Predict the 3D structure of the following.
Amino acid sequence: MNSTAVGENKRCRLHVDDESTLSASIEPWERNASAQDVARVALAVDPSDTQSKDRRFIYSKTGAVGRVNCPNTSSSNQFLWATVRVTHDEATAGEMRELIAAYADAVAASSECGQMLE
């Protein structure tokens, strides 16, 4: 059984010379959602792409998804998931893994965890 997103996402796009070059988003999903579930609907990443050993991230050279470990949400029915996507193949898969990990950790340290999982 596949899990689904359960709320509105928040997205930020970076444009350079009037062209979108980076997109980042966060979205609440059912608590049992896996990285593969999120990757199925994310752009520029596929469920069969490289997965981290802890199964928290899936990443390619053009996109990545990662679970946000929000503090104090053990009673929530949801997890936040972060996604990033680049429009040019100038990154490596390792760089995308570092980007999604840093982004997910930054979201976890922000007020978004509490606000989006209420």
Notes: The beta strands are 10-16, 19-30, 50-51, 57-59, 63-68, 78-86. The mean pLDDT is 87.
